Structures are given as C-alpha cells and as structure tokens.
Amino acid sequence: MRRLRACLGAAAAVSLAAVGTTALVAGSASGATTALSNRWYAAAPYLMPLDNDPPDAGAIMDATGLKAFQLAFILAPNGGGCTPTWDGTAAVSSDTAVQSVINTIRAKGGDVSVSIGGYGGTKLGQACSDPAATAAAYQQVVTKYGLHAIDFDLEEPEYENTAAVRNEIGAAKILQQNNPGLYVSVTTAGTADGTGWFGKQMLLEAKSQGFTPNNFSIMPFDGGFNGAASQTSALANFNTILQSTFGWDQATAYAHEGFSGMNGRSDTGEYFSQADFQTVLDFATGHNMDRFTFWSLNRDRQCSPADNGGRTSGTCSSVTQNSWDFAKYSVKFAGATPPTGTPTPTPTPTPGGGCKPAWNAATVYTAGNEASYNHHNWKAKWWTQNETPTGADWGPWQDEGAC
C-alpha cells in the first residue's frame, strides 16, 4: 500500500520512547534538562525538524501547553554504513540544526524524543551487522542529545525483513539494559484485526528475546479505517493479540498498549477529525492505555484554499481546523489542560454539495457516476468496481470535495 509517508519519511511501525535518568543526563554532551514524566514522552507528537515546512516548536508550546516532541527521523546514511543520520543525509555527529531546535524546546521547559526509522530510506537495523552494532549506533544519538526518550519506528520494508527486525528489537533491549530507566514503546502497523502478520511476527520476536517494553502501539490508519469507531475496534482487537502473545490479562495488556494516529486526511484518503481524536482519547484514557501520539505536527494546520482539502499533504491536514488543534489532544493525554482559545471552526459543506449515495464496493460505476465516501463526493473517471475512492492521480476516482 502506498503511503504519503513514504515520500515524507513518516513514522509508524516500531517506536521506542525512553525516559532517562540522571545517569543519562550526566553522560550527555548537550546539557539535557531533567526528564519530564513518562506520560509526556508517551504523548509526544511527531515533528520533522528539517523537512515538511517545520513549524516553530516554541510557538506550539505557547499555544497549546505541549511539552514533548517526537523528532523524526534517524536513518542509516544514504551512501551506506552503520552510523546515524537525519533522513539519511545529515550526520548526527556533526549536527547543529536539530540541536538548536532541541535547545529551544528545553529552554521553555520541554523535552524531545528522537524517532528512528519511518517509511522509506534505509534503516540502521538493515545496515548494521547485528543487534549490538545497531544499539551502538543508536547510543550515539542518545548521548549526542542527552535523550530521555527514543522512538523506534519500524515500517515497510524493514518490518518484512526478519534479520532487520531482530536487530531492532535486540538493539532496543540493549539500550534498555544500558540506560537504566528507559521507557520503551514498540509500534507496528494497524489493521482492523489489530495488526497484520508482520506485526505479529515482531511481537513474537520481542517475546523470544525476552524483551518487555512499556507498550506496543499500533497505527490504525491507511488500512480501510473510517473514523474513530474503526480505530477503537482495532485497539480492542490488538489488546486481545497482546493477551494471547504475552499471557497478560486485559488490564495489563491495555497498560502496555498505545495509539499512533494520523490527523486529518490519511495517505489513502481516510479522514480523522478533531471529534475522532477526542473519541480515541477517551478510549485510551478510559482503558488506561500507555501512549497516544500522532503524525504529525507539521500537518497540524489548515491547508490553503487552493488545496481545498482534496489531497494528503505533509504540511497541512486537509480538514477544517485551527492551528495545533490536534496537539491539544496530546496535551490532554499527558494530564494537562490546554489554554482556552478560539473554538474549532465547524466545517462548511461544499455549496449545494449534499452527499451523493454512499460508495458500495459491489456496485459497478462508469465514467461520470458519482458516490460519497469519507464525507467527500467522488466522480468515476472510468469503469470501476471495488476500488475505494482516493485522491490518487492514477486511481479511477476524482475528488469533488467535502459534502
């Protein structure tokens, strides 16, 4: 399945967040501040500091009360090797740009996690020879930035590579052992059933290595999801998988479970509104889940009128919103209260644009036929059946806008 995040380098499938101790801070070359609470690192939304029109982290903190950010992404060098870089191009060892962003956040009382992996690029688990070498590369990142948290984002194609997954899980275990107090979260792709075959294999790899993180998170989007009800259903199903894999009861499984969503329009044309986020947040807190995050802060702002919400963007959400609306749900999950601001605007339907009859997978559509899906009207470009409407240029459907 194609995801916009393949182009944007987005995060998802294995994530590790680590809450450091004074030992971590003392060994830091960056003058890290005292660690935040575990809840803040678990609530940190993703931010690309070097790409996708990075927003001002300090301004987000002032507007929302957010304190923690998940910076993305650490990859192997594009030219090969087992050393950490930002996006495959900027060596961590000589970085000053991301360090400046981190310094700004910490000066305002916040902190960061650093995300490893994402969709696309070569991951260190693929490039390094074994778990020890992979862990040594990641330890450079922890030491360079004095991290209290680190996020391993394992996605296609890495999570289909058995050796690479073994390296990543093994590295996570080593980092946890060598950095006392690490809070570790492992995130994999979400499906309606909870997670797919590769996600289950990753869980079995963790079990076989005797590695017990604080939580496993799934990404319930880009897989035929339609709003919050489908997401909470997937979270409940994933809970059952955790129980059967690790022998946990339901409450223990939820205490080791997390959610990683996508705000606004997803890569496959699904839509997740502010109301959807509130519903999932209520589910997460009501079940004492351990993590609630989303991709991404770069997208947590309204698109320009020219975009018309009809495409998926790395720099805006394609839904009606005020800037940083979605970040406020992370603040709530952390147990804080966002500042009171302008109410979220109510989406206005396209003039004269009532929704057409709902799209049906069994119906044959010919050129010019119209249907509605995910609160948008769509027009068929040619004969099609059982092809979900999306905004893909090569697809059979033309997006006619919100309804």
Explain the overall architecture:
- With about 400 residues, this protein is an alpha/beta fold.
- The chain has 13 helices and 17 strands.
- Strands 1, 2, 3, 4, 5, 6, 7, 8, 9 and 12 form a 10-stranded mixed β-sheet that branches. It has a 3-stranded antiparallel β-sheet with strand order 14-15-17, with no helix packed on it.
- Helix 9 packs parallel to helix 10.
- The longest helix is centred in the middle third of the chain and has 19 residues.
- The two termini are about 25 Å apart.
Task: Give the total of beta strands.
Answer: 17
From the spread of the alpha carbons, the general shape counts as: globular
Radius of gyration: 21 Å
Helix/strand structural class: alpha/beta
Strand percentage, roughly? 15-25%
Uncertain runs = 1-30, 343-353
**SSE order, as H and E?**
HHHEHEEEHEHHEHEHEHHEEEHEHEEEEE
The termini sit apart by 26 Å
How is the biggest beta sheet arranged? Answer: 10 strands, mixed
Q: What would the average pLDDT be, to the nearest integer?
A: 86
Q: Count of helical segments? A: 13
Percent of residues in helices comes to 25-40%
